[in-house]
């Protein structure tokens, strides 16, 4: 499947915000600029604030033909540049002018691609789209803060080697331009000083996300819009999508046109209801994975018994955090570990990794081997903290009824669930579209069939690539910074372009 790719070098004109129906806050003055030149050349643009401002950020956006005086109206949409005051850590523009949804599609700002989400996958998608000259790109996120990795998991030890984070940061030409900037080398310098064959705290990976985000939102061809995508309507006839975006739940939505929508919307820890009704309090996995938050949560409590469900990388890290607390600042803490299967480890072969996505790696693997295996647990201090309950699949109810009744709290480390998606609709019928992701191609199909939804792609932890374990033959989903990069690099050329 091929997404149509139109020209990106439209005529350039100076447009005030008042011409676009928005507040007359900034005036863009063009001094002697050739209106047919590439929009990447910003050297002859000057920015005149209509009110005082402490910081001026440069961004790329679109106006629509209706806003232009007829004397200067070109035959194609017009790009305009605007600026704004911004006090966020990342330089995100909210000056894009978008019309309300009661205008015909042709009157809306138009983009070659719209990327939803600004975590590692969204960053990857924007970088690869730019490298393939698919622009302008509208990039939409609620925070532009590096996603859940940077927000919640900075203290978590990675299961990825440091060198792969470095490779990720230099994987595309736009990324390399950012890394080579005068203000950014110290971010990678600190990471390069670490042992490249070991893991690191995910805070280092979060710093890479912040660095790349700040660079990408300044890159010509990218418009960063802080907000949420409410709805995407598949246009009939002319193709592409009409996408409604709002800054908040109570804010009115504005609409843009785009040829492609790339969903990098992320996931959150799964917390299914327990099969038994017990008076236990649930500790969120994100909090249990943070030693700082976990300590603050448990410190005021008296004697506490916490049940931990799972045997994954996350479950082992939670057990490790709880054990360290019990053996130091909270000796009245007991842990009950509920698991359906033995621990599994990644196996490093000559040219591949068996159980690459499902096996324990890094610090979690080392700690588990030293403390949780039957032959080591008996002689480890862990034996005074953790009681293990092993059971078969389907025996959860009876096991929990019998053994979990003494728990005051429970942590479930049982995987991740996709975050909610924007509503997808058919523009011809007005009906909601149900879709299924193709993990091999990075595209979506209409539910119940093989027809590909035009111009709709996905990536990241919510929409990862499917792989087959070369040793054991089972299917896995590739989750990780550089795994996202390898998948998107292929999908953007073979499917999204």
Automatic annotation (TrEMBL):
Pfam families: Pyr_redox_2. Gene3D superfamilies: FAD/NAD(P)-binding domain. One of its GO terms (molecular function) is oxidoreductase activity. Residues 113-420 form the FAD/NAD(P)-binding domain. This is FAD/NAD(P)-binding domain-containing protein. It comes from Zymoseptoria brevis. The lineage of its organism: Eukaryota, Fungi, Dikarya, Ascomycota, Pezizomycotina.
């Amino acid at each position: 499947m091929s997404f149509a790719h139109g020209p990106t070098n439209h005529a350039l004109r100076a447009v005030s915000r008042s011409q676009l129906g928005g507040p007359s806050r900034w005036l863009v003055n063009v001094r002697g600029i050739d209106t047919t030149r590439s929009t990447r050349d910003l050297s002859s643009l000057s920015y005149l604030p209509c009110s005082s401002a402490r910081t001026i950020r440069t961004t790329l956006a679109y106006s629509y033909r209706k806003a232009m005086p007829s004397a200067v109206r070109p035959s194609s949409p017009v790009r305009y540049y605007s600026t704004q005051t911004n006090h966020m850590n990342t330089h995100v523009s909210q000056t894009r002018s978008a019309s309300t949804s009661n205008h015909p599609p042709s009157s809306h700002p138009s983009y070659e691609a719209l990327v939803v989400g600004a975590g590692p996958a969204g960053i990857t998608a924007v970088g690869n789209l730019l490298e393939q000259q698919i622009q302008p790109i509208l990039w939409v996120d609620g925070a532009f803060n590096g996603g859940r990795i940077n927000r919640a998991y900075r203290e978590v030890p990675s299961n990825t080697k440091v060198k792969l984070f470095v490779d990720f940061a230099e994987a595309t030409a736009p990324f390399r331009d950012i890394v080579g900037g005068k203000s950014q080398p110290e971010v990678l310098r600190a990471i390069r000083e670490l042992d490249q064959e070991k893991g690191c705290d995910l805070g280092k990976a979060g710093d890479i996300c912040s660095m790349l985000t700040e660079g990408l939102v300044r890159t010509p061809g990218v418009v960063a819009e802080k907000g949420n995508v409410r709805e995407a309507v598949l246009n009939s006839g002319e193709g592409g999508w009409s996408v409604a975006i709002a800054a908040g739940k109570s804010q009115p939505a504005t609409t843009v046109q785009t040829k492609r929508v790339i969903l990098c919307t992320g996931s959150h820890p799964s917390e299914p209801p327990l099969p038994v009704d017990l008076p236990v309090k649930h500790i969120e996995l994100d909090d249990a994975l943070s030693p700082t938050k976990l300590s603050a949560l448990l410190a005021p409590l008296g004697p506490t018994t916490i049940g931990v469900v799972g045997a994954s990388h996350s479950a082992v890290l939670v057990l490790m955090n709880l054990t360290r607390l019990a053996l130091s600042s909270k000796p009245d803490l007991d842990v009950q570990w509920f698991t359906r299967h033995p621990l599994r480890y990644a196996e490093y072969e000559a040219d591949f990794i068996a159980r690459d996505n499902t096996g324990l790696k890094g610090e979690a693997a080392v700690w588990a081997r030293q403390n949780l295996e039957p032959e080591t647990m008996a002689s480890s201090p862990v034996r005074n903290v953790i009681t293990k309950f092993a059971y078969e699949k389907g025996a959860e109810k009876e096991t929990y009824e019998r053994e979990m009744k003494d728990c005051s709290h429970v942590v479930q480390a049982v995987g991740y669930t996709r975050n909610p998606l924007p509503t997808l609709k058919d523009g011809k019928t007005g009906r909601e579209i149900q879709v299924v992701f193709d993990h091999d191609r990075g595209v979506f199909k209409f539910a119940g069939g093989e027809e590909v939804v035009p111009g709709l792609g996905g990536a990241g932890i919510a929409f990862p690539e499917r792989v087959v374990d070369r040793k054991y033959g089972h299917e896995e989903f590739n989750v990780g910074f550089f795994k996202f990069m390898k998948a998107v690099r292929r999908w953007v050329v073979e499917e999204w372009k």
